[in-house]
Specification:
It is a single chain. The protein has a single domain (about 10-139), classed as Roll (2,3-Dihydroxybiphenyl 1,2-Dioxygenase, domain 1), CATH 3.10.180. By secondary structure, it is an alpha/beta fold. It contains three helices and eight strands, in the order H-E-H-E-E-E-E-H-E-E-E. About 20% of the residues lie in helices and about 35% in strands. Helix 2 (about 25-40) packs across helix 3.
C-alpha cells in the first residue's frame, strides 16, 4: 500500500487486528520526534493527521480538531500529561540510541537504559503529550 496516496476510505478499510491512534496537540512535531528518536517513518503528515510506520506496524496520529464528534474528546485533560498510564513499547529499538536522541527531541527521560529481570534492556521516555515510549531490546 502506498501510504502517501491511499484514500482515507481505503486506508481505513485495510486496518486489521489491534489499532493505535494517538491524540496529540501537534501532529507535525510528534511525528518528527518519533522519526528522530525511534527511526519511524511518517506518511501523509499534516496539521491534523499522520500515518506512522514502525517496522511492519502502522498506527495513526490525530490532532484534537479531528476528534470534533468523537466521544473521547470530552475526556481529554486541558493540561498534559494526556497519556498517563499508557506505555508504547518499541521492541525493535535500541534503548541506548533512543536515550541519546531523546533530550534533543523534547522527551523527558523517566528511566535511562536499564537491564530488566524480564530479559530486556529498556528505557522510559515521556513525550510532551505524556505518553511513555519504551524502546527495548533483548539482553
Amino acid at each position: 500500500m502506498d501510504y502517501e496516496t491511499v484514500s482515507a476510505e481505503a486506508f481505513g478499510a485495510s486496518l486489521r487486528g489491534i489499532g493505535l491512534n494517538i491524540l496529540t496537540r501537534d501532529v507535525q512535531a510528534m511525528s518528527g520526534r518519533l522519526v528522530q528518536v525511534f527511526g519511524m517513518t511518517a506518511h501523509r503528515v499534516s496539521a491534523d493527521f499522520a500515518i506512522m510506520r514502525y517496522g511492519a506496524e502502522v498506527f495513526q496520529l490525530h490532532s484534537d480538531g479531528t476528534y470534533g464528534a468523537n466521544p473521547l474528546l470530552g475526556l481529554l485533560p486541558e493540561n498534559p500529561p494526556r497519556g498517563a498510564g499508557v506505555e508504547i513499547r518499541l521492541y525493535d529499538t535500541d534503548p541506548d540510541e533512543a536515550f541519546d536522541k531523546a533530550d534533543a527531541a523534547g522527551f523527558t527521560v523517566l528511566q535511562p537504559p536499564t537491564d530488566k529481570p524480564h530479559g530486556l534492556r529498556e528505557c522510559y521516555l515521556l513525550c510532551p503529550d505524556g505518553y511513555a515510549w519504551v524502546p527495548s531490546r533483548p539482553l
